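Q: Given only this backbone (314 positions), what sequence would you predict?
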């Protein structure tokens, strides 16, 4: 394969990865249902998607005869597990019981910016004052958006679901940073596999223990489809396309595709959930993405270890 063809293929793998991740929000909403019409419990979805991805990871690691991580790898891997396998999925599932996928897409649009902030704090990377100004501006836009939505619903301030979404963004960002620390040595695909496999001794028994009683409370087929998607794709297969795209197409070039994710999530919420697009959500998402773009342009180049940190939430 020529370098030009490899780079082009990497770009389209990045597009595929972002598209797969964009479906995570509506798929999770399908699985959880709403507060008025609950389906699968958020805790069951969290451990279930980890168990599903863990079994797939076990098969992959055995098939590829992957060596065990070394002692120095376990600390960062545990940090990545806490953020990406436990924190983000659980907080996201809890939040999506109360808000739409479109609403969540606006709040989670902060993820690239918060990930860069986490990298600066955890990895000791320096950033210019302008970058921090963009981080504050993007956060303020999300707060204003959530505040206005709460006011329209007759509430005041940020709703509980908004705090959960912000917590999910922070958890995912920290997880990506820790995962990026061992990516150069283990390889991107193996990092996500080891993360999921590490939780399997706990996630699999917990999944069986929490398995819903469908006789007492029937669960729609669409909820099971959403659950299968977040376990097989959001938690596992999507990372293969995304990380390989970053590797072949160049992290700087391919990571820009990530800016499309909140809008793709909104589009997928139309046919999957019947949600409607509103100009307020689109406008705030555009504004948040603009702060992300500006923050990237005026920040210093990231260290090689954090090039994969631009990954998406699952």
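A: Predicted residues:
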């Amino acid at each position: 394969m020529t370098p030009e063809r490899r780079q082009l293929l990497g770009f389209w793998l990045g597009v595929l990865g972002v598209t797969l991740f964009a479906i995570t929000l509506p798929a999770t909403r399908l699985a959880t249902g709403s507060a008025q019409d609950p389906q699968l419990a958020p805790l069951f979805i969290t451990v279930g998607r980890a168990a599903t991805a863990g079994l797939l990871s076990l098969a992959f690691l055995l098939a590829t005869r992957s060596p065990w991580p070394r002692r120095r790898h376990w600390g960062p891997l545990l940090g990545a597990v806490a953020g990406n396998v436990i924190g983000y999925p659980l907080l996201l599932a809890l939040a999506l019981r109360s808000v739409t996928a479109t609403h969540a897409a606006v709040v989670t649009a902060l993820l690239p910016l918060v990930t860069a902030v986490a990298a600066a704090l955890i990895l000791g990377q320096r950033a210019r004052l302008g970058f921090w100004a963009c981080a504050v501006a993007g956060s303020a836009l999300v707060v204003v958006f959530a505040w206005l939505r709460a006011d329209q619903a007759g509430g005041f301030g940020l709703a509980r679901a908004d705090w959960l979404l912000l917590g999910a963004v922070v958890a995912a960002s920290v997880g990506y940073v820790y995962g990026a620390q061992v990516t150069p040595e283990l390889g991107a695909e193996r990092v996500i596999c080891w993360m999921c496999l590490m939780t399997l001794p706990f996630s699999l028994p917990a999944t069986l223990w929490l398995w819903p009683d469908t006789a007492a409370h029937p669960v729609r087929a669409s909820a099971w489809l959403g659950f299968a998607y977040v376990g097989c794709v959001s938690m596992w297969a999507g990372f293969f396309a995304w990380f390989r795209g970053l590797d072949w197409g160049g992290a700087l070039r391919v990571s820009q595709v990530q800016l499309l994710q909140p809008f793709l999530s909104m589009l997928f919420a139309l046919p999957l959930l019947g949600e409607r697009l509103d100009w307020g959500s689109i406008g705030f998402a555009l504004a948040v993405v603009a702060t992300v773009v500006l923050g990237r342009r005026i920040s210093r180049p990231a260290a090689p270890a954090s090039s994969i940190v631009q990954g998406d939430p699952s």
